[in-house]
Design goal:
Elements lengths: L2 E9 L5 E6 L10 E6 L8 E9 L4 E11 L2 E9 L4 E6 L6 E13 L2 E9 L5 E9 L7 E7 L5 E4 L4 E11 L7 E9 L4 E11 L4 E6 L7 E3 L9 E9 L2 E5 L10 E7 L3 E9 L5 E6 L5 E8 L8 E3 L1 E8 L4 E8 L9 E6 L4 E8 L2 E14 L2 E8 L6 E9 L15 E9 L5 E7 L6 E5 L3 E5 L4 E7 L5 E7 L8 E3 L6 E10 L8 E9 L5 E10 L11 E7 L8 E6 L10 E9 L1 E8 L7 E10 L3
Parallel strand pairs: 32-39
Antiparallel strand pairs: 1-10, 2-9, 3-4, 3-10, 4-5, 5-6, 7-8, 8-9, 11-20, 12-19, 13-14, 13-20, 14-15, 15-16, 16-24, 17-18, 18-19, 21-31, 22-30, 23-25, 23-31, 25-26, 26-27, 28-29, 29-30, 32-35, 33-34, 33-36, 36-38, 37-39, 40-45, 41-44, 41-46, 42-43, 42-45
Amino acid sequence: MAFVSEIIPFNIRTGTGTQTVNHILFPTVQAKAYIFASTSRVGTNSWASHSRGFDDGVTHVGTGMGAAETFGTNLTARGLSSEFSLITEQAQVSFGGAQMRFRGYVSAIGVGSFEITTDLNNTPGALWYAIMLGADDVSDDLQCAVGVHTSNAPGSEVVGFSPVAVLGLSVVVGTSETTGAAQHVGYATPCNSKQASFGVAAAWGTSDAKSYEVADIIDAVIASDTAPGATPGSQRTVSAWDATGFDIGGATVTTGDFRIGYLAIGGAAVAANLVAANQKTSTGAQNVTIDAVAPKLVLFGSANHTTATTVFVNANLSFGAFDGTSTLGMYFALTNGSVSPFSQDGDTSTTSCIIMRTATGHATSTLNAEASCTAITSGNVALNWSTADATAREFYMLVLAEGQNNGPCGANPFLSNSLTVTKIASPPTSELFTFTTTGGLSPSTFSLADGASRIYTGIADGTYGVTENPQAGWTPSYGVSSGDPHTAIIINASTQPTVTVTVNNTYRTTVQKLRRYRRFNLPWSENYNIFIRRAELIAQMGVGTSILDPTVTLRFSKDGGNTYPIVRTVTLGLQGDYTKRAYTLALGEARNWVCEAYCDDPVYCGWIAFDVDVDKGIS
């Protein structure tokens, strides 16, 4: 088992309906979830947009925010949906707020691809990015859940497993469309209890527009600013982690809409590590230490400011990703101003993962700092800054890595209990073996190939059972490291937190045969020899399998059954071959013919009679 990820760029089709997007690096992997990102840019836009979404094929969460300069009234637009994971919002060209330009969701996830269904599309050709999260084997060792915390108050989110990371999205609005909007992104991991968020907030009025940025809200997955205002309007934290989900903490929001969309990631295949670092103040290489082995994906985020827990004038947001091969970089910039024009800009890059810009006008901005990711290796993320200034801005990296190879950040440190099931077959085989569990393990059923393992982590104290389902030809035996029966395995954090079950299968190389037999008396004569030119067994044909053509052995006696000097074989046909004929030719001459027929293959033998073609000989 191994966690895998890749960045997949694709362009939106023309019109509405369904389009298929194929994986590039992993055509045989069926993803568990996708992260979507776009600035919806087609050429040079007259507006700036920033879109993000999560989708597991069942639940769809998306946000969009836009800005434009218009007629002396500066406007922003925002959106949050629990029905669509791909959303493009554009600021209106007249006072009034937002115009949704595009929306879609994942309607199907297949092996090596996914389908997007759209019912609104005014941005054909727009470039989007899908970040695929999957595992490269058949076992269910990566778990993802997309959901929405719909309450303005704290509460629990049950996802059915213990997360190693939670990604959050929120769009916060005031009591009316003209009071302001804020879009925020957050990362949280139980490893070292690290959390961070970054985002933009803006307000508008009939003659005045100000934008604010909530930057670096430590211990807050989602931060918000119900602009106008100079302080965060609300903060949210992941206040607790457990075996089935996580708790969202923070004060109740009494006004506005503060829904939180989230993507929870867990399972034995994946580990998470959240790291904060500062921008290099000169160009060149920068190495950032991470607590992860075999990293597969790094998600970058920045509010383009130095370390602080406050709101800044001018709103700038940077988001990026690197999968070891491909790069994604995005920026969204708004500049505070009391008079028109309202400065806004946004774009994407396939070479830079961190882009820090400050808007200077209509779809223009000044580049403050920019970096590419050149490599991700065990313990290190290598960056190269092509542009840098003297400001040591802070940025975050959420690292997702192979879980089975990791140390303190490999599994949820709050829940160390684990149960491992390993399959070993003798002789080696390509067959897949299925299992059923008891005691509340999730998933309750799973499959393993020869040599593979299934690891349940973060499970509660209790008694569990693991049983292999019957498989033709194979005999299982169980080895439990604790000595418990495989149907009553005790897991206890104090006395027995980790147990391994090894299931050995031996193939039955010798099988007792069940022989079907019948004797046929053929034509005979006391005075003349009988020549048998052709003898056909009349039986039910086509009773084999797709690969087994059952064999019937025919023994012929010339002396009434005392000896059987002639042995021939015929077959009954593969499954469905009902026109098959079973006959033999040129048996010779004798006076007292007898035939015995038998079959050792495990099929139905519906023998009826013998049909013979004979000639009368000379006495």
